[in-house]
Amino acid sequence: MDEKTGRYEFANLDFRREQRTGMGETVYCPGKTCAQLADIIRAFQDVGKSVLCTKATAEQMTYVGDRIQCLECDPVSGVIRYSAGARSRLPGRVAVCTGGTADIPVAEEAALTVDFFGAAADRYYDIGVAGIHRLFSKLESIRSADVVIAVAGMEGALGSVISGLVSVPVVAVPTSVGYGASFSGLAPLLSMLNSCAEGMAVVNIDNGFGAAVMACRIIRSAKRIGEV
Amino acid sequence: MDEKTGRYEFANLDFRREQRTGMGETVYCPGKTCAQLADIIRAFQDVGKSVLCTKATAEQMTYVGDRIQCLECDPVSGVIRYSAGARSRLPGRVAVCTGGTADIPVAEEAALTVDFFGAAADRYYDIGVAGIHRLFSKLESIRSADVVIAVAGMEGALGSVISGLVSVPVVAVPTSVGYGASFSGLAPLLSMLNSCAEGMAVVNIDNGFGAAVMACRIIRSAKRIGEV
Amino acid sequence: MDEKTGRYEFANLDFRREQRTGMGETVYCPGKTCAQLADIIRAFQDVGKSVLCTKATAEQMTYVGDRIQCLECDPVSGVIRYSAGARSRLPGRVAVCTGGTADIPVAEEAALTVDFFGAAADRYYDIGVAGIHRLFSKLESIRSADVVIAVAGMEGALGSVISGLVSVPVVAVPTSVGYGASFSGLAPLLSMLNSCAEGMAVVNIDNGFGAAVMACRIIRSAKRIGEV
Amino acid sequence: MDEKTGRYEFANLDFRREQRTGMGETVYCPGKTCAQLADIIRAFQDVGKSVLCTKATAEQMTYVGDRIQCLECDPVSGVIRYSAGARSRLPGRVAVCTGGTADIPVAEEAALTVDFFGAAADRYYDIGVAGIHRLFSKLESIRSADVVIAVAGMEGALGSVISGLVSVPVVAVPTSVGYGASFSGLAPLLSMLNSCAEGMAVVNIDNGFGAAVMACRIIRSAKRIGEV
Amino acid sequence: MDEKTGRYEFANLDFRREQRTGMGETVYCPGKTCAQLADIIRAFQDVGKSVLCTKATAEQMTYVGDRIQCLECDPVSGVIRYSAGARSRLPGRVAVCTGGTADIPVAEEAALTVDFFGAAADRYYDIGVAGIHRLFSKLESIRSADVVIAVAGMEGALGSVISGLVSVPVVAVPTSVGYGASFSGLAPLLSMLNSCAEGMAVVNIDNGFGAAVMACRIIRSAKRIGEV
Amino acid sequence: MDEKTGRYEFANLDFRREQRTGMGETVYCPGKTCAQLADIIRAFQDVGKSVLCTKATAEQMTYVGDRIQCLECDPVSGVIRYSAGARSRLPGRVAVCTGGTADIPVAEEAALTVDFFGAAADRYYDIGVAGIHRLFSKLESIRSADVVIAVAGMEGALGSVISGLVSVPVVAVPTSVGYGASFSGLAPLLSMLNSCAEGMAVVNIDNGFGAAVMACRIIRSAKRIGEV
Amino acid sequence: MDEKTGRYEFANLDFRREQRTGMGETVYCPGKTCAQLADIIRAFQDVGKSVLCTKATAEQMTYVGDRIQCLECDPVSGVIRYSAGARSRLPGRVAVCTGGTADIPVAEEAALTVDFFGAAADRYYDIGVAGIHRLFSKLESIRSADVVIAVAGMEGALGSVISGLVSVPVVAVPTSVGYGASFSGLAPLLSMLNSCAEGMAVVNIDNGFGAAVMACRIIRSAKRIGEV
Amino acid sequence: MDEKTGRYEFANLDFRREQRTGMGETVYCPGKTCAQLADIIRAFQDVGKSVLCTKATAEQMTYVGDRIQCLECDPVSGVIRYSAGARSRLPGRVAVCTGGTADIPVAEEAALTVDFFGAAADRYYDIGVAGIHRLFSKLESIRSADVVIAVAGMEGALGSVISGLVSVPVVAVPTSVGYGASFSGLAPLLSMLNSCAEGMAVVNIDNGFGAAVMACRIIRSAKRIGEV
Q1: ipTM of this model?
Q2: CB contact under 8 A, F102 and G207
Q3: Measured between CA atoms, how close is E88 to chain H, in angstroms?
Q4: pTM
Q5: In the 3-class helix/strand/coil scheme, how is H4-57 assigned residue by residue?
């Protein structure tokens, strides 16, 4: 590997992404062999940079966890994190909410990513609209966040309901939880895109990572505005 | 027309449907000429039977309204009703709810049908989840109904939210209200089918009539159980 | 676990759902580990409440069946039931019908749920329209039910045919039985939503449980009307 | 136009199709100007050949009807026929059935095409499964046909039900009649393709013409077998 | 099992289907346990009737083949046949054609079914339009058949091309052969439904059995016409 | 109309939404009659509140423009604005970008909404990836914004490209501009949801308004963080 | 307008595209007002450059044709061409083929574009697979082209058949010609993408223009290779 | 096997395809048994012809690699090549580009096919639009190719961006890389078909082979033009 360019045998590692977009490179694990994944993580360690890996399989996680030190591996979400040093902290809080317990893997991907990039993630799980009192009991707390990430499968109504109740931006993540006419997440995706409540935008099905990056960009943008 | 068989030049009128399914014949207006529609309505009048016509166009409504007496024509919903005599009343109440004002035509189709078949329809319009306080302010009243019809377009979350808050059966009607990724009502349809709240079943997009017949069958069934 | 709130490590158990919606909490098994499922069932046993679990895998069923006493496990439907005491009975009967033999797992999910919530379930299996004499030979009996649940895959015509022949509400369940242009149940789903026969509403593909809860709500609503 | 090749300014007329496939050329009207349509019909008249035109608009029908003699124009189906001489008759009968009255235009396209190619078309309209007694009252008569064409929109169950009751081949035509989740005929199309009753094959949505050609090929094939 | 009614523990066997539709009962294997399948086949043997089973898995085939005598098991197509006696022969020939070699399993399902019901099946495999000379070299022979079954995946053009070249009815079977934008057979299904060549009708994706029954009904119908 | 509750004959106006979500009520014009729209706008004027109306037709715009004073009507976007007083200003800037000129109506809906809620909107139109030098020539300027709204139809690549080049949050708006396999905006919608560049979230097709509200919530959230 | 940058009030005209991609700017007419279109065309005339406009409506064509001299307007295809001088010629020939007469507008868009960019376009119309002898009678001639453009709606088989018969690259254009399960061109689009014949690539539905640009790039690339 | 006709037990090998279309026969491996595949490859060796096999599984590759000499087996792409002699070279270069590393298997299928048919393949991998500087750093080199193959999953923007920057034909290959709303490659497929940049045509999802054949036909066509 050429350290300057990040040019690797099978990948163009983008060590300078942080300069350009404000956030470091991350690794999407599916389709990579265990050995490739280990090589990539070591490449980051070699240049003294942190790296976040998402959607790792159990096999990938075991392989790299056994061979590389100082990794945080989360089996629920498939997130692997390596932190090169103390993370710089962002000033905001992100409320990560789920409709049901089955949405938690995606929510944890979001929460761990938020934390990796330096913001605080507060978890509010299993507060979906089938028992809406569960949401209301947490509402004051959720309202105090700077960004809300709403993770929900099935009918995906959580985002709409929250979005009508808070004044901060809501990033909605449809999940593939469900069966039949969920069509692998199409139902909550369309539901969230058509929300009658405004102030919400949507990322890909099961893309907790993407929601977290959006949330962190929001907080970073906020920080900049505040500094002006 | 042969009065005994209901056999008409262009249609097999089913005068005995009431005996078989407990509810009289109804007429779906699209695709019929104004003259055909008028002939059909007159055929029912001739045999002394009530008839309900749905989804009439403005042109159809004007045509038959000008030529036939004693019709109730509702331009909002496209419902035309002819009542041959005093309607027998069913013992239950149906709460007809909508998410937004644009869902009202479909909801009125439901409410007028419920009324036609003898049950009471209470209207709760524009109480969608974008401002969920509007729903809560009506909740006690809605809970006192025997069946709820939830009419909503866009993300269609109204049904799920209500279904988690009441103990009576909920009939959900997705509407084609919305644009873009609503895909003409596909979004609320899928959303309602995937509801995380149980106790709800769904009819076709914009099918207020079908929801009302389902609701009336529920009440009729209830009446029978009560009589046993 | 906090017994009062039902707040568990990984789930918000809703012990008070019965008060709110009239029916107890149920558990959707997919995505839960065997150990989580066992913990949840024990939590209900600990507070002396019944619980119904749906769509359990063979592995889940074996695991909890080996470790927890007094469970009824049905391998055909994937339903696990724990009854804390004698069930209060509802006054109505539900006719559970299927088009073919391959629809039976979904139908059994419906029938066992109906039974769990206290109503009587009568089974009429393999009476689909390919040999419609099989339906007619059972028709009188089906007509005597208070609600019909029609479970069918492939073209899903069973619901329409029954709905035109009975006067009680019909809850239709499309199944993913079939192949090719069934598109995992889309064909019977669309077919049932577009039924030319009224008095029917539809639940999600393979959702026998949802149909049963709808049926029981109908009977409960009926009971209330009868009592007034 | 070059009469030998049928080569026209804007079309390759296929005067010899009859020799090749046993049936004469037909004209699909949409997208053609009134003048082009008239020219094409005249070209057939000039060479003394019959021609069948389908899906003509009211405007096309008036234009050519006013200018060309001896045309049979049917406004219900949009079929225009010119018969150069006495049609040779095929030995079979085709039962053309519809679920509702709104399916009649497509059914008439089929029936007029069957007649044009020399077979007998018997019409059984408005006998759909919402009132299945209507079908049974005609069943003996339908069973005596050599081919059945089943035309139905909405849930399209007619084909399945008939196919399970007769022993002759059934050609099913889904129609775009309906709204909402019919998705312009997708619902009955999928329903018919997934029929649990065998002995049925399907043509394009609203393609009464195609069903009729299939039916006539069946009868012609039959005739040939009989002659052997 | 009750031999008169065919009522079995888990299925309503329809021993009298032959009387009604002219063809005996058949068994769709997916979703049945090996033991259930064996019981069903034995039930037919016990009453001295032939039976055809389709889409059997390798496991099902081995299980019943090991336990029941006189079965013909075809591993390519998944067809199992039991013939109770000499089959009555139908007077026609069916040309079974495929576009590629990967379509052969579906074609064999069709050919073996045609043979089971008494007609002759001629096979023309791997003659798709990528090398259309292969089709032309067989054309005279194909033209001599009474019905053509065209089996093709990918773009499914085989049916259209044949249909424009022969005068007999063509039954088209789209297959799930292909990848990507084939969408599991949607591409050839739509292609065949939209064929510019008339005289063709379509059955479900991979439904060789259904095409064969349609073909046999055509020949039976032909026989009847010929006998009149 | 009841001024306190905002309860109107045909709508529940939500005068207190501003308190709850930080932004005032807005009106979605489609489906409302001209008279209804005028009444709603006057209701806001009567209580001294600003109001924003979106997707007004030319007819609606002319009607209310002729009858109500002090309205800003923009025919390009269909936006009608009434400002009750000087708008409070938000501290951020929003860069509104389009791929082509045909996307401008949606972009103007976004820009006028951003302005209505108090932030500054900078327009960068017709800078799509077909000629990517146009984007690069504006890049420095776009990078200085606090939020980017990327509006694009056809393949919708603009969002991905910008998102990889800036560090602020990007709100992507797919448009229905295009034809054929655009499927009314499905193509850019899916493209934007699957972006390989992170830091972007998506709103409904043609929903410039929703993107603007999201952008303003981001800035408001930023302001709050800055104030802490 | 700023002539150097091509920056216009409502559009960034790209006068230098020719340098970059070898072909001049073109204008997509839908969504532009008549006046805007006229202004754009005049802008090109003012700087002495040729311009091609596609998919103009009849109204746009009349408007600009009446006001601007030296335009070639083709009402069949909606193409408007202005040639600033003698076109430089490319050395190749493009065979533009259609399946039916209804595909001609799209084919003419292709042929006129090919001609505009300097290559020769030979037309072979109405040679679809329903009568495949029409294709074979032209085959020698088509084989002599350097690129083939195959334009077809309905089942779109033309491309596959040609692609298996020639050795030059084939650019396939699905058209929206057809109805029902054509789903506005989805059927031929999928068909062409899944072609069993290789050496073909596909452009958007109805995109004759895009196919022509692809063809001209092929010829230009060829020219360059030949010159080396 | 009959060597003259290439007629094999289970396949019509097309040894003369090279004469007809200029390129030799190739083998699509899915659905073939290991033994069938080996037989086919040996058949080509026996007649002294080269053969290319695509999408082989690991199992197929091991099987034939162990039994047949002189094969080149590439596990990344699933390509197996047998070269009967020195390949004739084509005069052009093909730039094979990918958006990400996960697209490499499809790109290698393309590159190895290009090489097999005699053209030169230059690889530019992992240069997608998330970090567009990576593309620009290679742009001069890419521009010097005669054809570009752009392989990309997710949003598929790579093709559009390249197409706007080069003057040679671009063949775009969408891949099934991605998840959620990628819908197995539908997202990049639609994106590429709707590209706002012209001069690009698209092949099936994951069809690297098809793109390569298109590219080689382009170069062969070029060679011919150059020779004239």
Answers
A1: 0.91
A2: no
A3: 30
A4: 0.93
A5: CCCECCCCECCCCHHHHHCCCCEEECCCCCHHHHHHHHHHHHHCCCCEEEECCC
